[in-house]
Design brief:
The protein is α/β, with parallel strands linked by helices and 148 residues long. It has 6 helices and 5 strands, in the order E-H-E-H-H-E-H-E-H-E-H. The model has no long low-confidence stretch (mean pLDDT 96).
Length: 148
């Protein structure tokens, strides 16, 4: 068995690198959003033309990014969504809802301080984790049937 895993969520820490490094040797392919903040914010206007109004600037970027996100989530076997401490990740909550609506296996990752705010998102998940290491253990168990 092989897995395609979409890594959604905050872009300010190295949690994606920790998961991909920890999963080395597993039959898994990792995908995710564009994590270059400037490229993600400006992709719409850089490709489709400038906008004088910030709303339409952001709208173009969100729509172009959605092409990538929707396709990657649809193609994923598992979607991991990380909620970090630095900013509110409204887009991550949307990704979790979209993945749940598609019936994807959903793993949520956040600290205990977000438990109450994310209780509905957590309820849609098959696993709620706090660390990248726990995500790797789940992937290893799913692919190999082995425990840490």
């Amino acid at each position: 068995m092989s897995l395609t895993v979409y890594l959604s969520g905050e872009i300010h820490t190295d949690w994606r690198d920790q998961i991909t490094e920890g999963a080395r040797g597993l039959d898994a392919v990792f995908t995710g959003p564009v994590t270059d903040h400037e490229a993600s914010d400006d992709c719409g206007v850089r490709i489709l033309g400038e906008e004088p109004d910030k709303f339409w600037h952001d709208n173009k970027g969100a729509n172009v990014n959605a092409i990538r996100t929707r396709n990657a989530i649809a193609a994923a076997d598992i979607v991991v969504v990380r909620f970090g401490d630095k900013y509110k990740q409204w887009n991550a909550a949307f990704d979790a809802g979209y993945a749940a609506a598609l019936g994807k296996s959903l793993i949520i990752m956040h600290g205990s301080d977000h438990q109450h705010a994310l209780k509905e998102v957590d309820a849609a998940a098959l696993a709620v984790t706090e660390t990248p290491e726990q995500v790797v253990h789940i992937l290893r168990y799913v692919l190999e049937g082995t425990l840490p």
